[in-house]
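Lab notebook: predicted structure, single chain.

Context: the supervisor wants predicted structures on file for every construct in the current expression panel, including those that have not yet been purified. This is the next one on the list. No modifications to the sequence; it matches the entry in the shared construct table.
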Amino acid sequence: MTDSPHAHTAQYVPRFFVKQRLTMMVNRYEIRAANADGTEGAVLAVAQQKRMAFKEQVTFYADEARTRAVFSFRARQALDLAAVYDVTDGAGAPLGTFQKDFAASMLRSSFHLTGRGVDAYGRERNQVVAILRRFVELPFSFHFDFTDKQTGAVVMTSERQFSLRDRYAVTVNDERVDFRLAAAMAVALDALLAR
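Prediction complete. Output recorded below exactly as produced.
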């Protein structure tokens, strides 16, 4: 794993959207900036996840042609319900990690999120929706709030918008949260909760 000259340069994006696109062999996600008026802006990254892979990995590319990988996340362990996922930049330098809190997630999906200067805990905002969506196959709107473990301040939210296709509005309140880490976590929420 080599360190690039830009490996330690944080990228902050205060608000963006994540949309899933269904294809036969892979899950694709489009990450777009949010314009000041709340509409979708420029493409920031395109993510691709192979289905049925032995080890969970999602790669984010700079463009639709997928010519340049810019960051990714990958499970450290295969077939582990509480696996740690490493988020790395395009050169493989670490940006942070996330991990599902398996015990707490039995009733309300919960995650640990760490990055440079950030140690947060995220969980589904609504306990009732969290329980219902485990038993009913409907496109529920559900939201995650990630809060700083020391201060309790919200560092990031991911809000699923009600639609048949998965679409999320992500707000990053804390400038310490690198966009690449936030985007990886937002896509993982969809990819990991779909199981």
